[in-house]
């Protein structure tokens, strides 16, 4: 059974589609990064996973059950919305007491162990905390409810690079120690590369690319040469992006087979460039990009 399985998932706000025909399969214990430009549908997808939103079409299950339908299912999912929402007038201690009251699986032992890492006083109000302290408190509240799936919408967007690194490190520690499945959205592709083993690139409300990071990186290549070098590509090669500078032609292609070009003309592609290639293709296209088969 997958931790998350979505088939033909879609959601419209009125007449306006925000997410179209989304297929997704994420095994348990994995970390999925959801990336895409503003308005791509990331928050919509995460809202559907958490059960805050209901699909207009298609289906989604979390550990085999529709999200947000039973108390047990709600306890399975920890969701931290954009901007790590906390109660500004409540202290850190009050947040933790509230969490203990509201969550049947609350892990006080874990809280006692982790609370020192918040780097703040328990009497401080959430409104007085720095972005990094808020993010760490939101993470602690989310993991202490002992969910099986942890969902973060843009958890690090407002943090400086050092705090971001520290926050992501804490997150990864929790993932390993508590055997969590995690989904997080971000514009910061380099952060996602550090911690994700699965990726979904969204643009125009559609999945442009999805699957295990290592497989996707291995099946994409960069070709560099003149325009004439790549007029006919081997069967099964899909052109993702083609760019020209002067006489030089740079082409990003997808192919599961080795390509018959000399070293120097063909090379691997960095994760960040791969994601950007799909985002650029979707931005350039007058029609929405394809929804590739999920793995
Ligand atoms: N409550 C809403 N009512 C109407 N349209 C909405 C609503 N929420 C989102 N949308 C629209 O749905 C589309 C997808 O929005 P969504 O918030 O999922 O994108 P996103 O990728 O999370 O964007 P961002 O990176 O800016 O947070 C956008 O066109 C947005 O304007």
Automatic annotation (TrEMBL):
PROSITE patterns: ABC_TRANSPORTER_1, ABC_TRANSPORTER_2
Keyword Nucleotide-binding part of the UniProt annotation: yes
Annotated coiled-coil segments of the chain: none
Domain ABC transporter residue range list: 4-229
Molecular function, one GO term: ATP binding
Superkingdom to which the source organism belongs: Bacteria
Keyword annotations of the record: ATP-binding, Nucleotide-binding, Transport
SMART domains according to UniProt: AAA
CDD domains the record matches: ABC_DR_subfamily_A
Signal sequence bounds: none
SUPFAM superfamilies: P-loop containing nucleoside triphosphate hydrolases
Family, similarity comment: Belongs to the ABC transporter superfamily.
Name of the protein described by the UniProt record: ABC transporter ATP-binding protein
Species name: Plantactinospora solaniradicis
């Amino acid at each position: 059974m997958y931790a998350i399985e979505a088939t033909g998932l879609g959601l419209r706000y009125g007449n306006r589609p925000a997410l179209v025909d989304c297929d997704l399969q994420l095994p348990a214990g994995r970390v999925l990064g959801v990336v895409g430009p503003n308005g791509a549908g990331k928050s919509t997808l995460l809202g559907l996973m958490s059960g805050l939103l209901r699909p207009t079409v298609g289906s989604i299950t979390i550990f085999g059950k529709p999200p947000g339908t039973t108390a047990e299912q709600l306890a399975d999912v920890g969701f931290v919305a954009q901007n790590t929402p906390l109660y500004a007038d409540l202290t850190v201690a009050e947040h933790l007491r509230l969490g203990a009251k509201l969550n049947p699986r609350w892990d006080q032992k874990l809280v006692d162990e982790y609370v020192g890492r918040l780097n703040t006083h328990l009497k401080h109000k959430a409104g007085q905390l720095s972005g990094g302290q808020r993010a760490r408190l939101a993470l602690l509240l989310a993991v202490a409810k002992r969910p099986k799936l942890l969902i973060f919408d843009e958890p690090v967007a407002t943090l400086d690079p050092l705090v971001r690194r520290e926050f992501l490190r804490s997150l990864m520690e929790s993932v390993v120690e508590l055997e969590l499945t995690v989904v997080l959205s971000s514009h910061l592709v380099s952060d996602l590369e550090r911690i994700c083993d699965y990726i979904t690139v969204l643009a125009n409300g559609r999945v442009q690319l999805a699957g295990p990071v290592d497989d996707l990186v291995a099946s994409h290549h960069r070709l560099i040469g003149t325009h004439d070098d790549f007029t006919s590509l081997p069967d099964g090669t899909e052109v993702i992006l083609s760019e020209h500078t002067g006489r030089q032609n740079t082409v990003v292609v997808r192919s599961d087979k080795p390509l018959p070009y000399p070293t120097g003309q063909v090379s691997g592609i960095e994760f960040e460039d791969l994601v950007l290639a799909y985002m650029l293709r979707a931005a350039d296209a007058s029609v929405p990009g394809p929804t590739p088969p999920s793995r």
